[in-house]
Every structure is written in C-alpha cells, then in structure tokens.
Amino acid sequence: MPSDSSALSCSILLLAGGRGQRMGGQDKGLLEWHGQPLIAHLQHLTRPLTDDLIISCNRNHALYAPYADQLVSDDSPDFPGPLAGIRAGLAAARHGHLLILPCDVPNIDVHLLTQMRQTVQRNPLLPLMVRHGEFWEPLICIIPTHLRDAVEAAWDAGERSPRKILLQLGGIGLECPADDPRLANLNTPELLHPGFGVSE
C-alpha cells in the first residue's frame, strides 16, 4: 500500500514500450545506469507510493514482470508512440488517477512526485503536466482516469501528441526550474555514461 495514506491515491505507469531508436534499437528500460537497469531506479522510487504499479512494455515481458503489479502493451505492433502506452495504462489503472513517468528519468525524486500529487488534489478533475521554462513534459504527468474516454476519442480522431490532448482537456502545469536536473532524459548512450547525472 502507499506509504503516505494522506496523499492522492494513484496508479503509477512507467513507460518502457518505445522502439529505443536513440539507443540503437535496444530496450531502453533494461539498459544499466549506475549498476542497475533504468526501470529498477524508477521502480525503487515509485514502489512505496502505490499498490498499483504498471509498466508499459512491448518486449522482454519476463524481465519487466518482477518490477510491476501489472504489465500492459500497445494494441498495435508497430510502436505507435507513448500515447499508446498511456491509453493502455489508463485502461488498466485501479485508482482514480494515473501518475505517468518515462523510464529514462532516473533523477526524478519523491519531492517532485509529492508536489505533483498535491497539485492534483487541489484540481482533481484536470490533468497535470510538469513544465520547465517554455517546455511541457507531457510524459511526466498525472491524468484522472475518468478522462480515458476523451483520450480514446482523440486517438480515434488521429491525434498522437499527449501534450496536445492534455492541453485540450484543460491540463495544468507544475512549474519547475528551466534546467531542473531531475527532468534530465537519459535517452542516448552518451547520457547513460556512469559519470552523468546524480545517483542517490
């Protein structure tokens, strides 16, 4: 069960279903950073926060299974993008809100996740995205699960941008510093070098 019973109850979705193009086609969530797979860093961070930890993956299911309560996969075999994983997570979520993180942000900390959940508690019907400087981070977000039908309708209409959909649904932003190191995407081999980033 979540460690903080007074906080917003969330299912948590870790996105690890991409093609890994910047990693030469490797399964990014299983690549090592500071001696552990990226997915392990995010699992360690989020495991105490939920009793419904979901991983979106499209391969290596047996390797991801120990890190999650549920695995979901895209309903299309051609890696249609992160929105497909988000749709699957919304359909599977057991709580009223789904907190979403990509697998390549291991510097995210509990303080930021707490800020996100507290902000949504004040605005429980609206999706929330992290924002830093002029940039939205639509894959670091919380979506009320009652919006799943609206997300599906946007998908059926051909929209594939999570940012556009969440803004259309009234998305609000949680402002972070412009160069917040917690938001660093370790999405290339160079960035996964052991000397990069801050390990807890």
Molecular structure report:
With 200 residues, the chain is an alpha/beta fold. The chain has a single domain, classed as Spore Coat Polysaccharide Biosynthesis Protein SpsA, Chain A (Alpha-Beta Complex), CATH 3.90.550.10. Helices cover 26% and strands 21% of the residues. The chain contains six helices and nine strands, in the order βββαβαβαβαββααβ. The protein has helices at 38-46, 61-64, 82-92, 110-122, 148-156, 162-168, and strands at 11-15, 32-33, 36-37, 53-56, 70-72, 97-102, 128-132, 135-144, 172-176. It has a seven-stranded mixed β-sheet with strand order 5-4-1-6-8-7-9, with helices on both faces. A two-stranded antiparallel sheet has the order 2-3. α3 packs antiparallel against α5 (148-156). The longest helix has 13 residues, at 110-122. The radius of gyration is 16 Å and the shape is globular. 40% of the residues are buried. The model is unreliable at 194-200 (pLDDT under 50).
